[in-house]
User: Fold this.
Amino acid sequence: MLQGLKSLKKEKIKTDIISGIIIALVSIPISMGYAQIAGLPSQYGLYGSVIPVFLFAIISSSPQCIFGVDAAPAALVGGTLSTLGIVSESEKAQEIVPIIAFFTGIWLLLFSLMKFGSLTRFVSSPVMGGFISGICCTIILMQTPKLFGGQSGTGEVFELVKHIVKSFGESFNAVSVVLSVICITVIMLSGKYIPKIPMSAIVMIVAAGGQFLYDYCDKWGIKTLPEVAGGLGRFSVPNFTLENCYSALTASISIAVVIASETLLAEKNFALKNSYSIDDNNELLAFSVCNIAASFIGVCPLNGSVSRTTMNDRNGGTSQIVSLTASAVMLIILLLASGFISFLPVPVLTSIVVCALWSGTEFKLARKLAKSSRKELVIFIAAFLGVLVFGTIYGVVIGVVLSFLNVIIRESDPPTAFLGVIPGRNHFYNLASYAKSQPIEKVVIYRFKGNLFFANVEGFRRDIENAVKEDTRYIIVDASGIGSIDTTGAQTLDILYKNLKKRGIRLFIVEHISKVNEELRSYGLGYIIEEGSVRKTITDALEAVGYVRPYKLSKRTENVSEDTAILQEFEWAFGNDAQKYIDINTERIIKGVKEININDKNADDEFSHLWDSVSPISDHILLDYMEQKVMQLAEKYDVGEEAIMQLIKAHREAIPANSNKSE
Assistant:
């Protein structure tokens, strides 16, 4: 209890209270909109922002998370009602939604008791990002008709688009459209340029105030929200009939999983960013208590709000004083100022919700994945389209299945490399990445970066057998990436070892953890260890057969130019930006040469300092490049060749001869 208040600092109390007031003001329109999405009258969003938020503040171990009525659970509940044929905001909806919240809380309680907090790591960011983006876009499509005077839709993307077109023809109100466009533009631009200003709350107050003073909605045919009775809503036990429980139980498990995954992932991100820790299972307990409490108030399931937590972080909120303040402000509004709700135009509230939903999408993640991982981008898109086309549950299932397939595919095709040495250096280098590296005579050194199991062991065997040449006598497997071996892997390794032995080739396994030796013995392969073919390092294996530095090397079959050799070493670190990196850093260093007098006694020190901005991992390669291109560089930058050579000499003397890093 009160773990989220442990980070409270006296000097931060004022900041936390101000942030809490802002969060409350922002939560008014957002919570009302999400309540409607969940099939409840709008005021239930406000009811869910008092007692459950207070309970979360005193139970949560997160000092920053803002809990309340939010997009994902609201959408799931709304989708469930649509599937069951229950009309939004009807008496049946108000009867079934609290039961869904109750069973959601029970599932979350079970997750907490069974220590399931750590299981959220099995829900990948692309799956969650695609899922959340799909939900947000689905709800935006649901709410779009309300921007121009129509009613919200139900179903998936095709039904929603059809409903939008139909509503546009039947209920179009030009003034509603203008009002919506103005609100969305103002909120979006303020979010970009003045993010600390609670523009959603300001827009709501201005719109409601204008209606109160000038009654413009009635004049122009713009819909407003219905009147709301003051107070905290009804306190009652949900109607647990067998039919209601059956309908709620199946929907609540998926809602509980989404709440646990989304909220814990968000909390962990903020904890990592701001250097504190949270207790996963305690958080699940907090989610559970809040949702069970919500069910007795008649509210839909509640979730951690990423957008409002982000706003809290921007405002400098550092403790759950923020949530306590927000719940207190909401209580005051419900008791003293609930009448203002009936003055709020529907297009304005819908615009606020649409902006909040759009800010909740994860399309930035999709853009990153497009640059870094096409496979994960496919997972994101699949989860996104799965939600849009087939519904929320199918979207999650599709994304999770693809995630596991991605893991299997990655494990079945792990990174591999054949290693050699570079004369004068102490490490072993990837022959494909380092043009200067050369294989050791009669030796194949093979690196395998993955657990050896049924899906990849055939590739392991094939790589080794294809690498064997007429003069090959030793094969050394760098098994530093192998953490375990399954039965199929052990059987294949046994056959491979014996077949190579018959051909006069000795196979070594090196660099691995001791657990692999235990597994070898358990599979009956202890004889490999007893025969001395298991060693701690590559060097140990080479010494066991009489190879010591400097090793006798074989010549590479391909001819590699000096330019290619240098570029390959840069590509190891900088990939496709290698040449760009060379050009930028060379220009920066050479231009500095002009400002140094080569006859000055401190010239060497000044030359050496020109390299301070260059990464140590690549400065020796850049030296080789510049030494090779002295004449071209001198002509290009109008610098004397003598000065460039002095620059190179000064830095060579300033760095250790073997400062190079192995791959």
